[in-house]
Structure prediction request, 142 residues.
Amino acid sequence: MTSETDARTRPFTVGYVVVLVVILLLAGAAVLMSLAVQGFFDRPAPSDDEVVGKGAGLTRYRLQEAARDGVLTAEEIAHAAGDARWSSSRSASAVRITVAYPTGGDAETCYRFTLVRPLTDRPLADPVRLARCPAGLGEPAT
Prediction:
């Protein structure tokens, strides 16, 4: 009888070691992912000013894109304003759009966007934040 062990009697084979290493690597990756996801959801909520500022920036971009063809319709303004209330006034020299963004409760923050005529693809001036919202803004489109 020989003292050699065959594949059936060896306590640990290379295959078992490889499987064990793969399981440990997957477990380590799972722990790292759970820590990363938990850290993502622990971020503080953005302030109302930040949310409104981003909304105004998006409205500015959408208005600029809509005005490229030289025409700005009420539907395009409503799309640009999103869920916010808005109004517009048109003169021979400019189109002025006022948008009221909700900031929680009954509070609102208003911005005025001015598009100089003729409407083209030139960049818009930065929106102006108003001290208070004017009366007569329409309801948001649904």
Observations:
- The first helix runs from residue 14 to 41.
- The longest strand covers residues 94-102.
